[in-house]
Amino acid sequence: MKRLATVAVTALAPVSWGSTYAVTTELLPPDRPLFTAAMRALPAGLLLTALSRTLPTGRWWGRAAVLGSLNIGAFFPLLFLSAYRLPGGVAAVLGSVGPLFVVGLAALLLGERARLRTVLAAVTAAFGVSMVVLTAEARLDAVGVLAGLVSSASMAAGTVMTKRWGRPEGVGPLAMTGWQLTAGGLVIIPVAALVEGAPPALDGKALLGYGYMMLINTGIAYWLWFRGIGQLTATSVTLLGPLSPLTAAVIGWAALGQALTPVQLLGMAIAFGATVAGQVFAARAAEPPAPAPTTAPKTGAFSSTEKNNRNVSMDLTSGRVRR
C-alpha cells in the first residue's frame, strides 16, 4: 500500500507537465521557449533552495551541476527545439520513448534487470501515445528528431544518475530539487539571451502563467519526481512518463475544445493500461526473494550437543578443518 501511494503521488509530476502546452499557448508570450524554460527553472530552484536552507558541499557542487544540466539545462532547450521543428504529436512520441533509455541505462549503471515484460510495457505505452497524438499530416525533420531523442536521453540519464548518486546524508529531496533547478536555470539563461535576446514585456496573464509554471508545473512537480526516484526504482518512475501526453490530450479536449476520435480514445486506453502494467511489473521485480524454507533434521542426524562435540573434536584434530 505504501508503494502504491508513492507511485500515485509521483504520477502527479507527469500529470502536471501535461498542462504545459495549454498554459504556454493560452497564457505565455509566443516564440519564447528558452525564456519560458529559464523562468520555470531558476526562480523555482532558488525558492526551493531557500526553503531547504541547504547548499551543496564538497563534490555535490559538481554533482548538482551535472544532474541539473541533464534533467533541466539540456533537456528543456532540446525539448523546445524538437517541439518547434516537429509537429507536436511527433515530439510527444519521441518523448515517450524515454522509458526505453532508462531501462537500458538502469541495467548498465544500477544493476536493474531489463525484463522483457517491462520493455514491452514501455513500447506499448509509446505506441498508445502515438495513436493519441500523431496525425496524417505529421512530417519529420532530422534536426527536430535528433533533438527530441537527445532530450529524452538526457532526461533518462539524469533520472538514472539521480538514483545512482542518491542524496548526501541528511539532505532531503526538496534541497536536491532546488540545486538541480538552479543549476539547470543557470545553464539555460545565457542560451536564452543569445538566441532570443532581451526578455519580453509581461502582462498580468503572462505573470499568472509563469507563476503556475514556476510553482506547480516545475517546483512541486520536480520535487515529487525526485522524491519518487529516491523511493522507487528508476524504471518504475520513468514508466509514469506517458501520463504527460495523455493529460495534455485530455486538457485539450476538456479546456480547449479539441475533439478526441475513437482511435485516440483507444490509444489512451492502451497507453494508460501499459503504464499501469509497467508499475505492476516493476513492483514484482522489486519484491525481495522469498527466504529459503527450513528443513527438519533427518532421522539419525546428530543432536545439537553431539554435533557441537563432533565439531570441536574435528577442529582440534584436523588443520584443514580449522582453516
Q: What's the layout of helices and strands?
A:
Blueprint: H1 2-17, H2 20-27, H3 33-52, H4 60-73, H5 75-85, H6 88-96, H7 98-109, H8 116-133, H9 142-165, H10 173-196, H11 204-231, H12 234-238, H13 243-254, H14 262-286, H15 304-317, H16 319-322
Helix pairs in contact: 1-11, 1-13, 2-11, 3-10, 3-11, 4-9, 4-10, 5-6, 5-9, 6-8, 6-9, 7-9, 8-14, 10-11
What would you say this structure looks like, in words?
The structure is a single chain. The protein is built from 16 helices and no strands. With about 325 residues, it is mostly helical.
Identify the notable features of this structure and list them briefly.
323 residues; 16 helices; 0% strand; disordered C terminus
Q: Helix proportion of residues, in percent?
A: over 70%
| General form | globular
**What Rg, in angstroms, do the CA atoms define?**
25 Å
Largest sheet: none
> Which percent range describes the beta-strand content?
under 5%
Instruction: Figure out the total of helices.
Output: 16
Structural class: mainly alpha
Element-by-element helix/strand order: HHHHHHHHHHHHHHHH
Kindly, what is the distance between the CA atoms of the first and last residues, rounded to a whole number of angstroms? 48 Å
Number of beta-strand segments: 0
What is the mean pLDDT?
85
Low-pLDDT stretches: 297-323
